[in-house]
Amino acid sequence: MKSQVELNGMLDNVVKKKKGIWQQSLNWRTALLYLLPSLILFSVFLFYPMGKTLYLSFFLTDRQGEANVFVGLENYLYLLESEAFLKSIKATILFVLYTVPTGIIISLFLALLANEKLKGIGFFRTIFASTMGISVAASSVVWLFLFHPSVGFLNKIIASLGGQGVDWLLDPKWALLSVSITTIWMNIGFTFLIILGGIQNIDEHLYESAKIDGAGYFYQLRRITIPMLSPTLFFVITVSLINAFQTFGQVDILTQGGPSESTNLIVYSIYREAFVNYQFGTASAQSIFLFLCILVVTILQFKFGEKKVHYQ
Amino acid sequence: MKTNNKLLVLFAMMALLLIVTACSNSANGEETESTEKTDTTDASSSSQDDSTDNSTGKTEAVFWHAMSGAGQESLEQIVHNFNESQDKYTITPEFQGSYEEALTKFRSVGGTNDAPAIIQTFEVGTKYMIDSGFIQPVQTFIDEEGYDVSKLEKNILNYYTVDDKLYSMPFNSSTPVMLYNKDAFKEVGLDPEKAPQTFAEIKEAAEKLTKKNGGATERYGFSILNYGWFFEELVATQGGMYVNNENGRSDNATEATFNGEEGLRVFEMINDMNKAGTYGNFGSNWDDIRAAFQTGKTAMYLDSSAGVANTIETAPFDVGVAYIPYSEEAERHGVIIGGASLWMSKGINEEKQKAAWEFMKYLQTPESQAKWHVDTGYFAINPAAYEEDLVKEKWEKYPELKVTVEQLQATKPSPATQGALISVFPESRQQVVTSMENLLQGTDPQEALDRAAKETNRVMEQAARANQ
User: Fold this and answer.
1) Which domains are present in chain B?
2) A241: nearest Cα among A192, A297, A188
3) Taking CB atoms and an 8 Å limit, are B9 and A234 in contact across chains?
4) Least packed by Cβ within 10 Å: which of A179, A199, B84, B242?
5) If you measure CA to CA, which chain A residue comes closest to B30?
6) Which of residues 24-43 of B touch A (CB under 8 A)?
7) Closest CA relative to residue B172, chosen from B225, B237, B99
8) What is the mean pLDDT of residues A8-35?
């Protein structure tokens, strides 16, 4: 009996040595099989275009948009010293700083309000989340009228209060801020809804125990709600960041990147370079740059931000 | 549980990241798709390339246009009238978005069987279309048939004539004019029948027309839309060139010249008024500046001749129409034509080209042009249309419309008023707009202009390199 087992063991060893790599990669191969459908889809719709973008970024394109003259890194070097592109990066970073924290704080505040169990709270929840249902184009047009230089509602309010109207979209100092306000307003619906969902998922028992221990509202907020909400907040922050980097519609409708290129955010600048100026080379270089930016920001976030996230 | 959640979030992040790259890549996605399309069309469409509809025996030709609103309505009626007027051809109008969008689509199908027989392209796309090799100059058909173009408006034909060849058929043409508030003129003691015409007169009138209330300005004297076209026109009316080599008409333009003295005078005029607080900045949106005029926030502004009838109709005060101003240091040369023209595709079925040509001729008839002019405010390419009853009635109602036609007919033909030919015009316009905005923020006029010229030179040079 014993020898039989030993023999089997020896046989196993021999087989293992013989088919080592093939056998060991079994899991890997199975995984690949499962991933195959998505890999095929990604290759067609993501990896191929991405490769093509990288390729185009080393060329000048002719009238048909075909890569024609190889210029190496010239497109990138040009971007780095181009005043317009640096301005566009600066505007994008400022825009992200204006919109992401403000949007999340306001949404968090609204979600906390809407989480109270009051009569008719459902109505307010609907109202707070309603901007989610409005398209970027529609809400931009609404704001366009609010900001209107001669018949704008906002300036009328200011004037009726005795103040002096502001050139919302015409003054480079104000334009980015105005676009940010619009964006914050538009994004609140989505962030609000996710955060509210997160809050409602927190175990009631935690609050009950805290109450028994005599913890006040703000103590509970700091020690229970925020930590328990951290995965949701982390998700919302990441999505908002990526969204902010990608902003296009508002800019296109409200300012077309002006005045003095103060709202020429990077995606809008890519669009203009590619489809108004037909410079696919520089547009591709900008796309690659944007991709790297978002990649770096997301990695940094996972590296540092996630440490603060508390998973149940 | 912990790792599970973590994984989930990670997956969500990854998915998002992929979406991000997808978005930033869509530009090239479309590009590659289109080239593939170009490759396959020859094979796949050869079977349907004979688009003759067997059931009716009519040849169908597709017409891509960029007219929306009233323009689209009127255009579709004209096309309908054409289709009814004969039984050999059918024109199918297809709206393709703005001029830019239509042109981008055309780039991907140009030169193939999928290309529309006719495409409407804005005036600044002229150079691109000529160089693209996708189009058949209409001169070919004019010569073949001995079609008489002399009955058409000479100053409009001039724009689209390059090397003595008429490349495209003019269609919707407009020029800039100055509109002013006659009531405001009376109010401040200016003669409402005599509009200021030189830069100095404009400055002076603007000074009087500006009305301040405390720190706020209730009414500005003068405004220009932040749009490159108006700058081009103000340079051209002084006889100034936008680019070298006779505005790019004797040879390919290699250098911007709009930062010369003529351009500087325009920028200095704006700068002086802006500093004096008499110049209103209403951005780069046509509707905004029109609203500013309608609500009395600005007393004079430049608009397209195509917008005149509508402005007169809706304004709650008397509107005056005048020629665009020129510098007292220069002679008045007139205006460049703006708007768009119709181009014929090359490489499509000959029958389709014939259909397109017949349609183009039909468009130039006085009846079609009269309808077009009355419906939209664009010029009649065929001046005989101005004798039609339809137009006479309209002019009786709005005698100011005549000013726009007179300004066009008084224009002296020269390379300056023919307009510049450069393939990178859209980008150059953007640069000029940015410079105008910088100027309004206090940048020195010469410095602002030089920046736009430098950028224009760079893109022209790059375009020349890329297309060698």
Assistant:
1) 59-174+338-387 (3.40.190.10), 176-334+427-466 (3.40.190.10)
2) A297
3) yes
4) B84
5) A49
6) 24-29, 31-32, 34-35
7) B99
8) 75
* pLDDT tens over chain B, length 468 residues: 444 555 555 555 555 555 544 444 433 333 333 333 333 334 333 334 444 444 567 888 999 999 887 888 999 999 999 999 998 999 999 999 888 888 888 888 887 888 899 999 998 889 888 988 889 999 999 999 889 888 898 888 988 998 889 999 999 899 999 999 999 999 999 999 999 999 999 999 999 999 988 777 889 999 999 999 999 999 999 999 999 999 988 888 999 999 999 999 999 999 999 999 999 999 888 888 998 999 999 999 999 988 888 888 889 999 999 999 999 999 999 999 888 999 999 888 888 999 999 999 999 999 999 999 888 888 889 989 999 898 998 888 888 888 988 998 899 988 899 889 998 888 898 899 999 999 999 999 999 999 999 999 998 998 888 887
Contact A272 B430 (CB under 8 A): yes
pLDDT at position B31 is 36
Tokens of residue B223, six digits? 């405004």
DSSP annotation string for B97-122: SSHHHHHHHHHHHTTSTTS-SEEEEE
Whether B291 and A242 lie within 8 Å, measured CB to CB: no
Tokens read off for A165: 């109207």
Cis peptide bond N-terminal to B399, omega within 30: no
Domain A74-308: give its CATH code: 1.10.3720.10
Partners of residue B31 in chain A, C-beta under 8 Å: 52, 56, 65, 280
Q: Chain A 261-280, CB below 8 Å of chain B: which residues?
A: 261, 267, 270-272, 274-280
Distance CA A57, CA A279 (A): 10
Question: B17 to chain A: which residues are within 8 Å by CB?
Answer: 242, 294-295, 298
Give the DSSP letter string of chain A: -HHHHHHHHHHHHHHHHHSHHHHHTHHHHHHHHHHHHHHHHHIIIIIHHHHHHHHHTTEEE-TTS-EEEE-TTHHHHHHHH-HHHHHHHHHHHHHHHHHHHHHHHHHHHHHHHHHS--TTHHHHHHHHHGGGGS-HHHHHHHHHHHT-TTT-HHHHHHHHTT-----TTTSHHHHHHHHHHHHHHHHHHHHHHHHHHHHHTS-HHHHHHHHHTT--HHHHIIIIIHHHHHHHHHHHHHHHHHHHHT--HHHHHHTTT-STTTT--HHHHHHIIIIIS--HHHHHHHHHHHHHHHHHHHHHHHHHGGGG----
Question: Where are chain A's structural domains?
Answer: 2-41, 74-308
Answer yes or no: do A280 and B31 touch at CB < 8 A: yes
Q: For A307, which residue in chain B has the nearest alpha carbon?
A: B6
Distance from CA of A3 to the nearest CA of B (A): 44
What the block records as the tokens of A249 is 């519609």
- Let me know the angle formed at the C-alpha of A260 by A255 and A264, rounded to the nearest 5 degrees: 55
How far the first Cα of chain B sits from its last, in Å, is 62
CB B282 within 8 A of CB B145: no
Say how many C-beta atoms besides its own lie within 10 A of residue B378's C-beta.
25
B 311-350: CB under 8 A from A? none
